[in-house]
């Protein structure tokens, strides 16, 4: 059994994480600084206003205290405005960082580890969850500042009158219990709510991708019901979250006025006894409100809890094990000999591929055939190290694939898929994207080889046409994917059903160009048509994840089970291959150098 290597990523608190640098603490520090400044101004205000009122009532002249009161009011207003500004910037900066780090982790992950996350779930994690997680730093800063206000107010209240301060202090434990209960109960509900959101998004995306099928089958009502089925659960979870939030605010709304009234009553008694002035009473009432305002932290605490749950979801993408690479390079001018030794691939406890020994001579074309689910795409993925086998090794020109550097592997192993992803650039950029940067002439030559040059030249701007403005059919889209593979072809080219959308004539032209106009090398082709298998030098026939036979298409065609792979009848093999196999040539073929199952 092989031991898989994975890269170790830094934790999200580190400055240099995957996908670029983290924003650091500066945005959060600016929010904290302005929030603390506003909190301190709010704490000092009642004391200064009380002193100003006493001076005005006694002497009619407050002196420098009146401008100081106005300055504090204006300063608090400006600091609150700056807090709002820096909070928006902090949220945007951290959301961008969380989103890019999660996306970077997803794109660099071993494909099999990303497969359990459907596109809708990934989209939810990268949008809603990333935005919630990005709000955590500013919310933490605001929460810290919000605690300064009641603590500072309590200390100032003790300076004004100790008895009133003790009276207010007796009610603070009850407020603390309210916040603790809210934080504990909210976490699980928020996590469930976010999971249900992802489920709805995944189902909706599946439906959008299959609109044509749904319309043809007349199952729109059933699909609508399937997509919207989790809404009942989502609504219940949302009501529960709001109930928890409302309960916390409701309890705070009872405790805060009670504390304020009690403090005001005690202050009034102290005023009547001559222990407090009118200005002191004003300060006492205000400080009691600020001290009891700790209950208002429930909103910020809820945002932090929601952000923490969202961050866990984005971290699942960010911390996916990345594909590890070695330090070796391929020998120069190698022919592209591919070898699989003792390869085993297991999924969910079931073996989906077993290849004891298979050696493909360099420069040959090998077709991989088999019924659906026989392991054809798994073999194609293992051959170019899109996935690593659970056991065994894959060698290219005598070097284990997992010991190659990323540059050596991706520069010499190229893939073409049934549904290529071309991006949003121009047609030329889509073809040129890859491990190497081909010239304009190489891009056009690859397009001609893939049968794409004709329709590309008819586009409004030719090769400079942006893809979103290029009305491409399925076959044209596939031909551009082939052109990209041809432009970057190395010593091994893997084509996983990459010609399925092409008509027979175009497919024949592409195969001719592949032999004569594309860099020579080994071709591994997942085939569903007998014509493709016939043009290959050799055929690897898979059945239930194992290699049943290896040989030429002409020889294998005599086997009824092999003909059944292509839907041919039992009578197609008795008289040879010419009548029973569409597109099969009766010309003799050279024996392979060595290919053993």
């Amino acid at each position: 059994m092989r031991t898989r290597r994975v890269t170790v990523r830094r934790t999200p608190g580190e400055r240099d994480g995957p996908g670029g640098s983290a924003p650091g603490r500066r945005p959060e520090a600016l929010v904290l600084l302005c929030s603390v400044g506003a909190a301190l101004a709010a704490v000092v205000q009642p004391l200064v206003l009380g002193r100003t009122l006493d001076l005005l009532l006694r002497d009619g002249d407050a002196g420098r205290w009146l401008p100081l009161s106005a300055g504090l009011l204006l300063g608090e207003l400006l600091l609150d405005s700056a807090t709002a500004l820096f909070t928006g910037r902090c949220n945007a900066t951290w959301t961008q960082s969380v989103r890019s780090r999660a996306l970077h982790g997803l794109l660099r992950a071993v494909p099999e580890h990303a497969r359990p996350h459907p596109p809708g779930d990934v989209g939810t994690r990268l949008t809603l969850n990333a935005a919630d997680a990005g709000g955590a730093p500013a919310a933490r800063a605001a929460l810290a500042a919000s605690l300064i206000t009641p603590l500072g107010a309590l200390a100032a209240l003790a300076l004004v009158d100790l008895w009133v301060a003790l009276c207010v202090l007796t009610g603070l434990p009850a407020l603390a219990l309210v916040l603790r209960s809210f934080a504990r109960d909210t976490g699980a509900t928020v996590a469930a709510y976010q999971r249900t959101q992802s489920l709805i998004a995944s189902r909706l995306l599946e439906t959008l991708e299959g609109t044509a099928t749904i319309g043809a089958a007349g199952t729109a009502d059933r699909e609508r019901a399937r997509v919207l089925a989790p809404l009942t659960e989502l609504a219940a979870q949302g009501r529960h979250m709001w109930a928890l939030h409302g309960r916390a605010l409701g309890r705070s709304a009872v405790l805060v006025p009670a504390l304020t009234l009690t403090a005001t009553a005690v202050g009034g008694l102290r005023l009547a006894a001559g222990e407090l002035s009118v200005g002191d009473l004003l300060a006492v009432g205000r400080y009691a409100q600020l001290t009891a305002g700790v209950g208002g932290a429930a909103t910020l605490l809820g945002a932090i809890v929601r952000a923490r749950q969202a961050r866990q979801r984005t971290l699942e993408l960010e911390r996916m094990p990345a594909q590890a690479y070695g330090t070796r390079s391929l020998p120069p001018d190698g022919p592209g000999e591919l070898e699989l030794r003792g390869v085993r691939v297991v999924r969910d406890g079931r073996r989906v591929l077993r290849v004891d020994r298979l050696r493909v001579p360099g420069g040959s074309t090998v077709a991989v055939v088999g019924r659906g689910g026989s392991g054809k795409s798994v073999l194609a993925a293992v051959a170019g190290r899109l996935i690593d086998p659970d056991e065994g090794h894959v060698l290219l020109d005598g070097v284990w694939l997992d010991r190659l550097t990323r540059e050596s592997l991706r520069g010499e192993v190229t893939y073409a898929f049934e549904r290529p992803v071309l991006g949003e650039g121009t047609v030329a950029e889509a073809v040129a994207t890859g491990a190497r940067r081909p010239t304009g002439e190489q891009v056009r030559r690859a397009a001609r080889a893939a049968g794409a040059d004709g329709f590309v030249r008819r586009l409004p701007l030719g090769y400079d046409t942006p893809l979103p403005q290029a009305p491409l059919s399925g076959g044209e889209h596939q031909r551009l994917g082939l052109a990209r593979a041809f432009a970057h072809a190395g010593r091994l080219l893997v084509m996983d059903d990459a010609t399925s959308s092409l008509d027979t004539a175009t497919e024949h032209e592409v195969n001719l160009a592949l032999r004569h106009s594309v860099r020579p090398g080994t071709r591994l082709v997942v085939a569903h048509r007998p014509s493709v298998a016939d043009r290959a030098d050799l055929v690897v026939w898979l059945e239930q994840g194992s290699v049943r036979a290896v040989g030429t298409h002409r020889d294998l065609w005599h086997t009824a089970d092999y003909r059944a792979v292509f839907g041919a009848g039992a009578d197609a093999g008795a008289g040879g291959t010419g009548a029973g196999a569409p597109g099969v040539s009766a010309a003799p073929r050279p024996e392979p150098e060595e290919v053993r199952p």
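The longest strand covers residues 350-360. The radius of gyration is 35 Å.
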